[in-house]
Design a protein that fits this description.
Layout lengths: L1 H13 L11 E4 L2 E4 H23 L6 H24 L2 H4 L18 H19 L3 H25 L14 E4 L1 E2 L4 E2 L9 E5 L2 H22 L6 H18 L8 E2 L2 E2 H22 L9 H16 L11 H25 L33
Helix pairs in contact: 2-3, 2-6, 3-5, 5-6, 6-7, 6-8, 7-8, 8-9
Amino acid sequence: MSVLAALPAALHAALPAEIPSPSVGVWHLGPLPIRGYAMCILAGIVVAVWLTQKRLEARGHRKGIAIDISAWAVPFGIVGGRIYHLITTPQPYFGQNGDPWKAFAIYEGGLGIWGAVALGAVGAWIGCRKNGVAFRDFVDAAAPGLAIAQAMGRFGNWFNNEIYGAPTDVPWKLRIYEWDTSAGRAVVDAAGNPIVKGYFHPTFLYEALWCLLLAAVLVWLGRRRPLKAGQVFAAYVMGYPVGRIVIENMRSDSANVILGQRVNTWVSILVFLLGVVLWRRFGRMEQPALPATAEDSKDTDHAEATESTEPAESTEPGETPEATDAAEGDESHDAAEATADAAGAREPEAGDSSAEAPPDRPNAAATGATKVERPTQS
């Protein structure tokens, strides 16, 4: 019992007393603002595209295919994420004292993951159609990278001092400042020191860790289980809401509520059910065709090049194929004429007693001339 009683004190000693938050979320490079939130989102996109490319290459797809498809998926996803945020949290933009122009200020935060995934999938489908890639292959390859991108994007919320839970005194409590959203920095007191709002559960960190765990499970699942195409993505659609429902109910930021639950909680439940449907549906579908490998393409190109360069017939040096064909035609014509002359020479002259007319036979030819077959012209 003494060991168990000493455990909390040991944890307090081993772990940091708190997790600090940045007091500045935007830096200026001349007139250009560099925002921590945007950098985290962009870094997540880069990592997701890189990992998706590696997984697609392992499936036999060409280099650069992930970038070509992501050129459609990423813009669609950003727009979809923003639209979802505006629909579920309209008050700061269209409510009383709201600023509609702030709807375009994505750099201040406000991208809903469900809208990003939904509209991003539409963009990915378009990109897949244009590049000849099976949609289910692509989303399977992209699922772990998408979860990692979400984890990295949550650190953008850390830069903005947002997405935290209830007040706490646990060793990993998160320090949150009073925040000036328009300036992108903490509010300061008369002495210029940032004003601490309090210490809270770091729900942004909880969700980031959940997403990293989910990404690892998805990679393991794809390697260890004989799944149909699309089922890894369906596992992502089922898995993320499980953690999101728990973490969503830990958050203390304001949100719209339906029947006592936050909107995102209800959406998470619906998305989980959608994942179950996708898992079952993809499990009954036929596997998409395997992509042609680079080696197959090289063999095909080599075979076509060999056929195009191989001559139809051998020719004498300095002689063209057309001249050879013409000469062969003349030789055939001369041979036919010589055969006809020889046949005519064998016909008996009139009054020659040594030659007797052949007896009449049914169905015999009217003339005694020998029939000559003309060689086919080349």
